[in-house]
C-alpha cells in the first residue's frame, strides 16, 4: 500500500510514536486494520528517530513497512493481591468476606459443596474489593541465557549500530553474519520442539508402576492420637505459606487466605477437620498441573526437564499442616547426620566439614575417600506402598497416615507447556515436587532404604 499513517492516535490502531507525515494511502491501511482487528505496532513504541524509518533514498526517509498484530491476544484475569498491602483495602476485603460468609450455608456437610462455597466466598470478596487485572500469556522462547549467547547478541547489536551509521555494504554483511550466528545458537533454546503430549507420555510412564502391592494397611482403631487440626496449626501454616506463588485454575492466591477474618478461618478449620477425620480430600485437589522446567543438556529430551507440580493453594495449606504433624514424629527417628529437608538445617555445615577434613588430611598426606550417591529422579521413583508401610512401622498415628494415603490416591496429572494443557493421565508412583509434604515423606523413605 505504501501508506504513511502519521502519529495521530486512531481507535487503538495507530499510536503516537510514528512519523508525522501522512499520504493518500493512510486511510486504506487504517480501514484494513479496523476490518481485521489489527493494530500497527510500529507506532506504539517510542524509539529514536534514526530507528523509526524503514525506507531511505535520495535524502528522504519514511515508514512504509509496518508490523501489524491481532489485538485478540490471549489473556488471563488475576486478582490484584498487591492491593492487600494497603490497610484500608485489606479491611474492605475482610468485610466483603464476612458478608459473603453470612450469605452461604454454614458448615456444609458435603465436602465438595463446601469447597465450592469457600472458593466462591473468596472470589466474590476479592473481585469486589480488589478487582482483577488481565495478564497476557506471552510466549518466551529463549529460556536459557549463557555467556556465549550474551556475547553473540552484544556483538550483533554493535554491528547493527555500526551499519545504521555508516550504511556501508561491508557493515551490512557483517551485521547479517552476526545475526545468523545468534539465530543458530538460539535454535537449540526454542521451546516448542517437544509437544505437550510427548511430555504426558513420558511422565505417565515415569510416575506409574505395575508392581503395586495390593495389600491393605491395617489400622488400629485405638491409634488415633491428634485426631483434629487446631487453630494454632492453621495459623502457623498460613504464616509459613509464601506470597507471590502461582495459583491453580481458580486463581486464588495465598494472600487471599492470609488476610481473611477470623470467622472465615474458623470455617476453613472446620473444613480441614472434616477432610482430616473423613479421609477424603476434594477431587480437584487430586489433580496436579505439571510444568516442565528445563535443567540441562538436550532440550528435545523430556528427561532433561524437571516436572514441577502447580497445586491448589488451599491444598498446600492443608498439606503444610499435615507436614507439621508428620515432622513431630519423623524427627524422633532421624539421626543427627541427616541435614537435608529438615527445618533449621542445611547442607552448608556438612560441606564445610568435608572441606576442612580434606584440608587437614592433605596437610599430613593421608588418603581420604568420599562416597557421593546421586539418586536419579529420586522423588519420581518413590514407591508409595512401601512408603506407607514405612510410616506405619514408625508408629505414625493412623489418622495422620490415612490422611496421607488419601492424598496419594487416584491422582491425575495434566501437562502445561507453552501455555497449553494436555489431557489428564492417572499416576500411582512418586511424590509431588512442589508439595510441602514431599520432602518429609522422602526423608522417611530414603532413611529406611539407606
Automatic annotation (TrEMBL):
Residues 274-450 form the Reverse transcriptase domain. SUPFAM superfamilies: DNA/RNA polymerases. It holds the Pfam family RVT_1. GO terms for biological process: DNA biosynthetic process. InterPro entries: DNA/RNA_pol_sf, Endo/exonu/phosph_ase_sf, RT_dom. Gene3D superfamilies: Endonuclease/exonuclease/phosphatase. PROSITE patterns: RT_POL (PS50878). CDD domains: RT_nLTR_like. PANTHER family: REVERSE TRANSCRIPTASES. This is Reverse transcriptase domain-containing protein.
Amino acid at each position: 500500500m505504501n501508506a504513511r499513517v502519521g502519529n495521530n492516535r486512531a481507535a487503538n490502531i495507530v499510536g503516537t510514536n510514528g512519523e508525522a507525515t501522512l499520504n493518500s494511502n493512510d486511510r486504506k491501511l487504517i480501514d484494513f486494520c479496523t476490518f481485521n482487528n489489527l493494530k500497527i505496532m510500529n507506532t506504539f513504541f517510542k524509539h529514536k528517530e534514526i530507528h523509526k524509518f524503514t525506507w531511505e533514498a535520495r535524502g528522504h526517509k519514511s515508514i512504509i513497512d509496518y508490523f501489524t498484530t491481532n489485538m485478540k491476544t490471549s489473556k488471563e484475569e488475576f486478582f490484584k493481591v498487591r492491593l492487600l498491602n494497603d490497610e484500608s483495602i485489606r479491611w474492605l476485603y475482610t468485610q466483603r468476606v464476612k458478608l459473603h460468609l453470612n450469605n452461604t450455608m454454614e458448615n456444609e456437610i458435603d465436602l465438595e459443596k463446601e469447597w465450592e462455597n469457600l472458593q466462591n466466598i473468596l472470589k466474590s470478596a476479592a473481585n469486589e474489593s480488589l478487582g482483577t487485572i488481565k495478564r497476557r500469556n506471552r510466549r518466551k522462547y529463549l529460556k536459557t541465557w549463557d555467556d556465549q549467547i550474551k556475547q553473540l547478541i552484544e556483538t550483533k547489536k554493535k554491528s547493527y549500530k555500526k551499519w545504521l551509521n555508516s550504511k556501508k555494504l561491508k557493515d551490512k554483511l557483517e551485521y547479517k553474519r552476526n545475526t545468523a550466528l545468534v539465530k543458530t545458537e538460539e535454535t537449540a533454546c526454542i521451546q516448542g520442539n517437544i509437544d505437550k503430549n510427548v511430555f504426558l507420555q513420558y511422565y505417565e510412564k515415569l510416575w506409574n508402576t505395575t508392581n503395586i502391592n495390593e495389600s491393605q494397611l491395617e489400622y488400629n482403631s485405638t491409634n488415633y492420637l491428634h485426631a483434629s487440626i487446631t487453630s494454632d496449626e492453621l495459623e502457623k501454616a498460613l504464616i509459613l505459606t509464601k506470597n507471590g506463588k502461582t495459583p491453580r485454575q481458580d486463581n486464588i492466591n495465598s494472600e487471599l487466605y492470609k488476610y481473611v477474618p477470623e470467622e472465615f478461618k474458623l470455617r476453613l478449620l472446620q473444613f480441614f477437620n472434616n477432610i482430616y477425620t473423613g479421609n477424603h480430600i476434594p477431587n480437584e485437589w487430586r489433580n496436579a498441573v505439571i510444568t516442565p522446567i528445563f535443567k540441562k543438556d538436550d532440550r528435545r529430551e523430556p528427561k532433561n526437564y524437571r516436572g514441577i507440580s502447580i497445586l491448589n493453594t488451599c491444598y498446600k495449606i492443608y498439606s503444610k499442616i499435615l507436614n507439621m504433624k508428620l515432622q513431630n514424629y519423623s524427627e524422633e527417628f532421624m539421626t543427627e547426620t541427616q541435614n537435608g529437608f529438615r527445618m533449621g538445617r542445611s547442607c552448608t555445615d556438612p560441606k564445610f566439614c568435608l572441606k576442612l577434613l580434606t584440608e587437614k588430611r592433605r596437610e599430613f598426606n593421608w588418603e581420604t575417600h568420599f562416597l557421593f550417591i546421586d539418586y536419579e529422579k529420586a522423588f519420581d521413583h518413590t514407591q508409595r506402598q512401601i512408603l506407607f508401610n514405612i510410616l506405619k512401622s514408625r508408629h505414625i498415628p493412623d489418622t495422620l497416615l490415612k490422611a496421607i494415603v488419601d492424598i496419594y490416591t487416584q491422582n491425575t496429572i495434566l501437562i502445561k507447556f507453552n501455555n497449553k494443557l494436555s489431557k489428564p493421565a492417572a499416576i500411582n508412583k512418586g511424590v509431588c515436587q512442589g508439595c510441602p509434604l514431599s520432602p518429609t515423606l522422602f526423608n522417611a523413605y530414603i532413611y529406611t532404604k539407606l
